Amino acid sequence: MRLIFRTLLTAAALAAALPALADGTDDGKKVYMTKSCMACHGMKGAKPVMTYPALAGQNEKYLLNQLKDIKAGKRVGTIDETTGHPFVQGMTDIMHLVDENDLKNVAKYLAEQKPGAPKALDPAPAPEEIAAGEAAYNSLGCKSCHGKDGMKPSTKTYPFLAGQNRAYLIRAMTEIRDKTRVNGQSKLMFGTIKKASDAEIAAMASWLSQIDRSAE
Ligand code: HEC
Ligand code: HEC
After folding, report:
1. pLDDT tens digits, 81-124
2. CATH number at residue 205
3. Is there a binding annotation on residue 142?
4. Has residue 6 been placed in a domain?
5. 10 Å Cβ neighbour count for 54?
6. Which of 104, 129, 204, 205 would bridge with 125, disulfide CB 3.0–4.6 Å?
7. What is the per-residue pLDDT for 215?
8. pLDDT value of residue 24
9. Is the pLDDT score of 22 beyond 90?
10. Signal sequence span per UniProt (predicted)?
């Protein structure tokens, strides 16, 4: 009797442990650590190098859609003058190392990571620049899709913007406005972003990049 009870207990413990093993987070971490993602996007996706995007705490569906588009070569962008190749090239080059399942797992892992604290800007932007960024964001109507302060995307396939790398934000907005980046749901944004000047884009990026999502 005792033995049967113990066997049942063991089975129950195993069953409880299984979903944790099968949910992809551990597998996603392994992909992130072994397929060179960390070299460019930093520890846990929260400390990107140079002008590369932060990924920690981004919407899972948005991440997965971008990963699929990058793997399929659908997401293109401007040329990085320091390398002479598109910014996304280094990443595209390693995408043969990952399959569809890896992409699902790594998107899940990254969405569960805590967003990093904002990276201080050097030189620090003037208070007027930050205020102009917030004003442009609110008057252009970005809030309807990305939420108040870029903190609450209205749909799971839309990205968070708060705390994102400033240089990356400028590039992403400019590329979508100029229709260089047209993959996925980019076209939903065309009508709004076309009204933004270069100065407004820079100001919005300064403001958004300094909003802290790490304490959530
Ligand atoms: C050589 C550097 C490099 C490597 C390695 C790399 N990435 Fe990237 N990644 C980038 C750059 C640069 C961009 C932005 C491209 C652009 O500006 O269009 C990017 C974009 C992304 C995006 C879209 C982010 C957004 O906000 O739209 C995701 C998701 C992503 N990378 C995940 C990964 C994962 C997962 C791996 C590993 C399998 C990886 N990256 C490996 C450089 C890299
Ligand atoms: C109608 C909805 C909508 C509106 C309004 C909108 N966006 Fe977007 N935005 C999106 C969607 C959807 C994406 C992702 C596109 C994709 O699937 O690749 C996006 C992507 C972005 C990105 C790229 C994020 C990344 O990680 O690469 C930035 C930056 C951005 N939006 C800023 C803005 C700003 C600033 C405004 C206001 C001027 C704005 N958006 C207005 C829907 C919208």
Report:
1. 988 999 999 999 999 999 999 999 999 999 999 999 999 999 99
2. 1.10.760.10
3. yes
4. no
5. 26
6. 129
7. 83
8. 73
9. no
10. 1-22
What is this structure's pTM?
A: 0.92
185-205, pLDDT tens digit by residue? 999 999 999 999 999 999 999
Q: Which ligand is nearest to the CA of 196?
A: 2
What pLDDT is recorded for position 154? Answer: 97
Is 38 annotated to bind a ligand? Reply is: no
- Is 204 annotated to bind a ligand? Reply is no
Spatial CB neighbours of 80, under 8 Å, sequence gap ≥ 6 = 86, 87, 89
Residues 61, 101: one domain? yes
pLDDT computed for residue 10 by the predictor = 52
Checking if the pLDDT of 16 tops 50, the result is: no
The pocket around ligand 2, CB under 6 angstroms, is made up of 53, 65, 137, 140-142, 144-146, 158-159, 161, 169, 172-173, 183-186, 188-189, 192-193, 196, 204
Q: Are residues 88 and 131 in the same domain?
A: no
